[in-house]
Amino acid sequence: MINYSIIIPHYNIPDLLKRCLVSIPQREDVQVIVVDDHSSQESQTELKELEAQFPTFQFVYSERNGGGGVARNIGLQHARGKYVLFSDADDFFHECLNDVLDDYKDETCDIVFFNADSVDCDTLEPCKPDRAEKLQGQIAGYAEGRKGAELALRYLFPEPWCKMIRREMIERVPIRFDATFVMNDYTFSYLAGYHAKTVKADVRKLYCVTYRQSSVWYSGRDTIERVIAVTEGRARKNRFMKDHHIPVFDEQMTWPFGKALRQRDWTMLNALFDVVGRYGYSRVYVLYRLLMRSVRYRLGNYKRLL
Q1: What is the per-residue pLDDT across 202-241, written as a single tens digit (0 to 9) for each?
Q2: DSSP for 106-126?
Q3: How far apart are CA 290 and CA 52, in angstroms?
Q4: Which of 89, 101, 122, 133 is buried most deeply by CB count within 10 Å?
Q5: Pairwise CA distance, residues 162 & 221, whole Å
């Protein structure tokens, strides 16, 4: 019986993928699916060598380069586990993964969230700032019973990793990743949070997310096309929250506006206003959110000085 399917999209980093695969215990109840997003011929040759080293793992080769979202969707087509977990190829799991797999084999919850830490991909030194710091705070808040902690995990943790999601729920809705190169996990994550009837959180650090400057997320992140795409994804998400009466607003939607104002980049600013306007957010509303965020920040600094 397959209890878990672990889906790993891959593109041209077979050496890092090997590190990820080594961190996963080879068990009869675990299905590991590597989906290659049409890597170079050289990388695919190395992948064939990895197939020989990990004969119980499944390697799927896409005929086109569609991005991480498309690769994960392909992985979902092959998944047979009761629960699905996701990993990026340049990240890896901690040793507690084997214990977690034992502990949750009879679980019935729709989503279980786990903790994480982060390191530099090459040096393995701790990241500063810690890429997992926000998640750590959300997990701690849930463990302490803080108000709004469950909502934060459901709707303000957009990454697919550190979640064990019931496959029956994914297929019943159904939920899939967007076919984009950035922000392809946002819709999947908040829809999973919305449709999950029951969730819980585990304080164990199951996963290590790495910082790699050449990754899709960090390369070209300040281009106008990239900023627009990210802002649109967040605006779409906030519209969903509002339409479904969920008391959550992702403040990250307003961050690019603040940067554009500070730099007096009026072209960027007008483009951003146009994007969020499609989802019902006026210029006045965005500026109001920016002002309130600034006030909260200043009040927080003032309280720390007392």
Answers
A1: 999 999 999 987 776 666 567 888 899 999 999 999 999 9
A2: T---SEEEEEEEEEETTT-PB
A3: 54
A4: 89
A5: 24
Q: Return the number of other C-beta atoms located less than 10 Å from residue 221's C-beta.
A: 12
* CB-CB contact of 211 with 123 (8 Å): no
Tokens coding 285: 């509303």
Buried b (16+ CB within 10 A) or exposed e, 85-108: bbbbbbbbbbebbeebbeebeeee
pLDDT at 221: 65
Structural contact between residues 160 and 147, judged by C-beta atoms closer than 8 angstroms: no
The rounded distance, in Å, linking the Cα atoms of 123 and 134 is 22
Contact 43, 17 (CB under 8 A): no
Q: Please state the pTM of the whole predicted model.
A: 0.93
pLDDT beneath 70: ranges in the chain: 216-221, 297-306
